[in-house]
Design brief:
10 strands; two-stranded antiparallel sheet; globular; mainly alpha; 686 residues
C-alpha cells in the first residue's frame, strides 16, 4: 500500500516528481496542482514522527512558489511569497546532519523571496531579504564548491536586477560584475550571460543619468570585454533567451555612445547572419541605434576631429547595415508551438503579435485611415451598449448555430477577408484556413491573398467564400469568379467601399512596403495603373465599379453574392432591390474613409430597412464575445473578424487562429447563458 514513510510508494513524492516534470515542460497549472497535493499530504504528518516531512514539505512549498512566479501574473506574486514563508518555516525543523544540502536550499529560499519582492516592486524589502541570504552564506561559509559559488552568483545577479529597478545602476553594475567573476571556472554559461547582460544594462542606464559619462573611461573597456565574453559563450553553447537579446541591445548602446565606429561590425555578427536575425523587436531597436551612431559619426566628419576617410567608410557600412535590416522579412520569429497560459483574451494576442512584427508591418496591420477616428469608434461603439440579462431561462437546448444561404454553420463567427497573410506567417492563408476549420468557422478569402485561391481551397476543411474586387478588366474579373467556382467556394463577397485606397498616414510614416516574395498572387497578369498625381480624372477612379458592375457580377454566377461596405439604409435598399444575396455592414476596418460611422451605430437602421429580406453580417471592432452578442441583438445574423485573426496567425499560426476563435466562441456562449438566451435569434436584450 502507498505509504508517506516509504519513498518508493509515497504519493507526496510522486506528486512532487509529476509537478517537476510539468514545471520543466512549461505546464504551470498542472504543476501547481501536483505541488498543492504534495503539500496537503505532507501537512498531515508531524515533524517529530516523520523527520523527512519538514524537508519534503519545504521543497513542495518552494516548487509551488516557482510555479506561481512562472505564470507571470502579478496577482499571484503575493501567494508565491507566502509559499516561500511556509518553506522557510518548515526548514526550521530540518537539521544539517540529516540534510547536508540544507544550507543551500534555505539560502535559495531567501534569494527567491528577495527576487519575488523585487518583482512586486518592493526594492527595500527585497534588499533586506538579500541581506538575510548573505548572512546565511557568511554563517555557513562561502567555500569554493561549485554549488556554493553558484548560489553566491545567484544572490549577486538577482540583487543587481533589483538595484536596477531601484534606479541604482552603479551598485547594480558592481553586483553583476562580482557575479560573473564568482562564476569563472563554473560550468554555468547561462548564468554568466545573465550577469554580463545586467552589467551592460546597468552601464547603458548610467549613460542616460546626469554625470553618467564620467564613468565611461573606467568602465568601457570592461563593458566591451563583458559583451564579447558573453557572446562567445552564446556562440559556443547555442544558448538564446531574453538575456542574450538584452546583451546585444545594451551592448549596442554602449558601442554607439563610446565607440560608434565599431557598432556596424558588432551588430552585423548578430542581426544579419547571426543567431538573433529573427528577433524583429531587436532589429527595430537596433535600427534606431544605427541612425544615432550614423549622426554621431557624421558630426565627427563635419568637425574633422579624426581620420575622416575611416569614419566616412564606417558611415557607409552603417547605411548598408540599415538597408540589410530593412530587407529582412518583417516577421522572422518562429511561431509558438504552445499557447502561453497567460493568453486568455484577444488583447493578449494583440500584445504578442506586436512584439513579433516589424514596426512597418505593425503599422500596416493596426493602422487606419487619416486620424483613425473611425478605427477608434468601431471599438468604442461596443462599449456604449449594455446587456440586460434574463433570469431562470431553460438553457438545455442552447445553441450558437446559424443558417445562411441554405447552409448551417456551427456559430456566427466568420473570418473577414484580409490581404497578404504571408506577412504574418510562413504558411500564409493556408494556416489561417487550417485554424478556421478547427473551429468550423467560415473563412472569406481575399482577392489580395498571398496564396493562390485554389491552394487555399485544396487545404481547407471548412467552408470558404471568395472576396472579389471588381477589376476594370471584366475578362480578368470573370476569370476570378470562374476560378472561385471551380475551387469550391460557396459565395462571392464583392467589396464596394474601396474604389481606391484610403489615406493611411500611420502606414506612410512607417514606410511600409510589401517585401519581396509576397504579392497578390491571384492578380498576377492584370494590367496595373501607373501612379498619378491627381485623383479626379485618374484612370483608377474612372474605372471604379458601379451598381451596374455589381449587377453584371450577379449575372455571371449562381453563387450567392454579398456586397461588403454598406453603411447607409439607402444603399441597403438599392442592394435589396437589385436582388443581392447578403449585406455586410463594414467600413473596411476604418482603413478607407476616416470619420465614417462605426458599423455598430448604423446596424439598427440598416436592419430596419432590410427587415429580414436578406442576411446581414457586420465587421469592425469586435474583440469580445459580448461584442458579438450585441451585434446580433442589433440586427446582424453573423459577424466577421479581421485583425484579431492576423494577431493569432502572427503568434502561433493555425494554432493561434484556432485559439482566437475558441476564445470568442466560448465568450459568446457564456454571454448567451448569463443573458438567458437559448438561441441566437433570441438575442434582443440590449
Amino acid at each position: 500500500m502507498p505509504s508517506l514513510s516509504d519513498p518508493q510508494t509515497d504519493p507526496s513524492v510522486q506528486h512532487m516528481h509529476a509537478g517537476m516534470a510539468a514545471l520543466n515542460s512549461g505546464d504551470w497549472q498542472p504543476a501547481l496542482g501536483h505541488f498543492n497535493e504534495a503539500i496537503r499530504l505532507r501537512e498531515t504528518l508531524s515533524w517529530r514522527d516523520h523527520p523527512q516531512s519538514a524537508w519534503l514539505l519545504a521543497a513542495a512549498w518552494i516548487n509551488r512558489s516557482d510555479a506561481l512566479r512562472r505564470m507571470e501574473k502579478p496577482a499571484l506574486l503575493t501567494d508565491a511569497l507566502r509559499s516561500l514563508d511556509h518553506a522557510i518555516a518548515a526548514m526550521r525543523h530540518v537539521s544539517l546532519a540529516d540534510h547536508p544540502v540544507f544550507p543551500e536550499r534555505l539560502i535559495l529560499a531567501w534569494i527567491n523571496r528577495a527576487t519575488t519582492c523585487g518583482e512586486m516592486r518592493e526594492p527595500a524589502a527585497a534588499l533586506k531579504n538579500f541581506q538575510q541570504a548573505e548572512s546565511l552564506l557568511d554563517t555557513w561559509g562561502r567555500d569554493t564548491s561549485s554549488a556554493r559559488r553558484f548560489i553566491t552568483a545567484m544572490l549577486l545577479v538577482n540583487r543587481a536586477r533589483v538595484l536596477l529597478q531601484a534606479d541604482q545602476p552603479i551598485p547594480a553594475w558592481e553586483n553583476a560584475r562580482a557575479a560573473a567573476e564568482v562564476l569563472h571556472g563554473v560550468n554555468a554559461p547561462s548564468a554568466i550571460i545573465k550577469a554580463r547582460s545586467i552589467q551592460c544594462r546597468a552601464l547603458a542606464h548610467l549613460l542616460d543619468a546626469p554625470g553618467g559619462l564620467d564613468y565611461i573611461d573606467d568602465w568601457i573597456a570592461e563593458a566591451t570585454d563583458a559583451v564579447e565574453e558573453a557572446l562567445t559563450l552564446v556562440k559556443a553553447t547555442g544558448y538564446l533567451d531574453v538575456w542574450v537579446s538584452d546583451l546585444v541591445r545594451y551592448g549596442a548602446k554602449i558601442y554607439r555612445v563610446c565607440q560608434p565606429q565599431f557598432l556596424a561590425e558588432f551588430l552585423s555578427d548578430w542581426l544579419i547572419d547571426g543567431p538573433l536575425s529573427g528577433d524583429a523587436v531587436l532589429r527595430r531597436d537596433m535600427r534606431h541605434e544605427i541612425l544615432l551612431a550614423q549622426a554621431e559619426l557624421e558630426q565627427r566628419v563635419f568637425l574633422a576631429s579624426e581620420d575622416t576617410g575611416y569614419v566616412e567608410n564606417q558611415i557607409r557600412i552603417l547605411k548598408r547595415l540599415q538597408t540589410a535590416l530593412l530587407q529582412l522579412p518583417p516577421n522572422m520569429l518562429p511561431p509558438l508551438a504552445r499557447i502561453p497560459q497567460g493568453v486568455v483574451s484577444l488583447s493578449d494576442y494583440e500584445a504578442l503579435a506586436r512584439e513579433r512584427l516589424s514596426p512597418e508591418t505593425w503599422a500596416y496591420l493596426s493602422g487606419g485611415a487619416a486620424d483613425e477616428i473611425t478605427l477608434r469608434k468601431n471599438r468604442s461603439a461596443f462599449d456604449e451598449i449594455e446587456i440586460v440579462p434574463r433570469l431562470f431561462r431553460d438553457l438545455t437546448d442552447a445553441s450558437t448555430a446559424v443558417t445562411l444561404f441554405g447552409q448551417k454553420y456551427a456559430h456566427p463567427i466568420f473570418i473577414a477577408p484580409t490581404a497578404f497573410h504571408h506577412l504574418f506567417h510562413p504558411q500564409g492563408e493556408t494556416a489561417t484556413a487550417m485554424g478556421a476549420a478547427a473551429f468550423q468557422a467560415g473563412m472569406v478569402v481575399s482577392t489580395q491573398a498571398s496564396t493562390p485561391l485554389e491552394n487555399i481551397a485544396a487545404s481547407a476543411q471548412g467552408p470558404l467564400w471568395f472576396q472579389l474586387y471588381i477589376q476594370p478588366d471584366r475578362d480578368f474579373t470573370l476569370d476570378l469568379i470562374r476560378r472561385a467556382e471551380a475551387a469550391g467556394y460557396q459565395a462571392l463577397v464583392v467589396t464596394a467601399d474601396a474604389p481606391l485606397a484610403g489615406i493611411r498616414n500611420r502606414e506612410q510614416r512607417a514606410g511600409f512596403q510589401i517585401p519581396p516574395g509576397i504579392d497578390a498572387v491571384n492578380l498576377r497578369g492584370i494590367r496595373s495603373h501607373a501612379p498619378q498625381d491627381r485623383v479626379f480624372g485618374s484612370e483608377l477612379l474612372a474605372a471604379a465599379p458601379t451598381w451596374k458592375d455589381l449587377a453584371w457580377v450577379q449575372c455571371q454566377t449562381l453563387l450567392p453574392v454579398l456586397v461588403k461596405g454598406i453603411l447607409s439604409p439607402q444603399d441597403a435598399r438599392i442592394a435589396i432591390d437589385q436582388g443581392i444575396s447578403g449585406i455586410i455592414v463594414s467600413n473596411h476596418g476604418g482603413r478607407t474613409l476616416d470619420t465614417a460611422p462605426a458599423t455598430l451605430h448604423v446596424l439598427p437602421m440598416i436592419a430596419a430597412e432590410v427587415r429580414g429580406a436578406t442576411p446581414i453580417l457586420l465587421d469592425g471592432g469586435i474583440r469580445r464575445g459580448t461584442d458579438i452578442f450585441k451585434a446580433l441583438s442589433l440586427g446582424a445574423d453573423a459577424v466577421m473578424i479581421g485583425r484579431p485573426i492576423l494577431h493569432g496567425l502572427s503568434v502561433a499560426g493555425a494554432l493561434g487562429v484556432a485559439h482566437v476563435l475558441k476564445i470568442l466562441l466560448t465568450e459568446l456562449e457564456i454571454t448567451m447563458a448569463l443573458a438567458g438566451c437559448v438561441t441566437l435569434p433570441e438575442s434582443g436584450q440590449i
